[in-house]
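Bug report (template v2)

What were you trying to do?
Predict the complex of my protein with 2-oxoglutaric acid.

What happened?
Run completed; filing so the output is reviewed.

Input:
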Amino acid sequence: MLKNWLSDTDLASYAERGYLHFESAVPDETLVELQTAAAEFVEASRSMEESGKILDLEPGHSPEAPRIRRLNSPVDRHPAFYSFAIEGFAAQLACRLLGGPVRFHHSKLNFKWSHGGEEIRWHQDIQFWPHTDFSPLTIGVYLEDVTDSMGPMGVLPGSQLGPLYDQYLPDGSWAGAISDTNVEELNLKDIVWLTGPAGSVTVHNCCMVHGSLPNDSDSGRPLLLQTYSRADSYPIAHIGANGVTGPTSGTIIGGSSSQALSIEGRKFVGAPDWSRAGAPTTSAFFGSRQKGN
Ligand SMILES: O=C(O)CCC(=O)C(=O)O
């Protein structure tokens, strides 16, 4: 399904600049499926008065004028989102970008509604869900046309190779954003705003400084985001969103996991994944040699 437009030059550019941007890249038929699925959640939101586990609503939301901030974990909510992220276009693009099988981490749909859809402050993603390496990347798709006035995502090219910022406030609470002092040190004049017609695709590395301005335009800016790492990269438990990313998280796409990994440059092969089926009842320690799955 994926066209051969991801060239070696694109891969080299991603390695150097930390992002990619392709206008109108998603096939029309797929785009319509995603738009139709998104519209179903907008309709469903009309009967909601407050945010829930699935839909996060903005202040001012009403049945007549819905305002959704985010659909959480779309892959777990609708087959169109599952197919796109786990089997289809985004899954195949992730495998191409990462050069082999990938591990799906999570997805979300940020609606950024018209007339005030909120700013997303400058931040890096890796602090939200650390992994055993820096391979994780996020693939975004605009479900509608996005112009400069609609709060497009902005990226700071090359910043993925720079400092990894402390995203806590001085009082120790989690801000999820780079402090004003650190932001002053960034070359914000170099920010690239990723706009484009519906179906345009963004890719950004987990260490990339990125964010977006409020959407003060008359139209919404739905951005469907899905995150993958290499298959030999693992989310580190007990930090941030790791472990609460939904049932599809951890799915290996484009191959299987060999359980091999590398920490501090030392390679080894870990035990099987017991997180779904449970740990083996008879331990191989005691001579049974039972396979642990
Ligand atoms: O929706 C956006 O503009 C950016 C999204 C983002 O950075 C995030 O959700 O981590």
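What did the reviewer find?
The chain has five helices and 14 strands. Residues 258-293 form one domain.
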